[in-house]
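---------- Forwarded message ----------

FYI, see the Phenylalanine--tRNA ligase alpha subunit record below. Original note from H. follows.
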Amino acid sequence: MKEELKQLEKEALDKITSADSLKEVNEVRVAYLGKKGPITEVLRGMGKLSAEERPVMGALANEVRESIASAISEKNEALEQAEIAKKLEEQAIDVTLPGSPVKLGARHPLTIVTEELEDLFISMGYTVEEGPEVETDYYNFEALNLPKEHPARDMQDSFYITADTLLRTQTSPIQVRTLEKHKGKGPVKIICPGKVYRRDNDDATHSHQFNQIEGLVVDKNISMSDLKGTLELFAKKMFGEDREIRLRPSFFPFTEPSVEVDVSCFKCGGKGCSVCKQTGWIEVLGAGMVHPNVLEMSGFDSNEYQGFAFGMGQERIAMLKYGIDDIRHFYTNDIRFLSQFKQA
């Protein structure tokens, strides 16, 4: 029995030494130290031994078990350390290599244009006012000299929510609300940027939702020359110092007289090209003197106070400023398009 135990110990230790994985070591443990292993089978035959031999053989069996268990523990530890070392080698990081570049975002071109316009008019003494995008029919139309059934309402196909509420079609309602807050006392000098909504078919130059920024000045002795001077400064700051403007008669229900404002083409300098359709001029906005009815409905005495107003779309300005040919580029979130404005 003694020789059999020593032989089993030698076999187990040899297999442990040659094992290349934790799985193989575990198989040796189960095979030799398990309940059905050969060492257990040998110990079951100890009943045939004399009383003097049993303690000697029991002690030897325990030594063999401890020897095999100790070898298994050492082998497991060695294999685990080798596996860790292999992973460290495979996953080694060269700390001297440059890091991955961090991609920086870019401001949206409409944000850039809006901020430029706000900075320009704030520098001229204007304040920035905001108002609700869901408006009442009164502020969106009636207070702007557009009573119900007025034919000019057809110029703006609207998104009505109820018979009396709608998504605003312009930022002009903010002007009316601001005039009412002043309770007939000037001066008023504001710009009103924001989103507006009209039932329009989306194409390269139209969108059902777009941005608008309107300006309003009301005070005593305001004239058309004040409007013209303001718009000339706007054109030079936004499109270049050599830009000129021209005013063409037009119609808007809330201004009288009303004008369309053109700026000399910044690509050809007024000589005529594809951008200005060979005219030398590009239409940029609408403007005019505030209609007396609008002033009166807002609590101002039109005999004492006069004013001018203008309105423009940020998309229109951005398309002209950056040579963008499709308004839909502003809303499709194409990274290739937006990344061009990182240095703008």
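H. also flagged this: DSSP finds eleven helices and nine strands in the chain.
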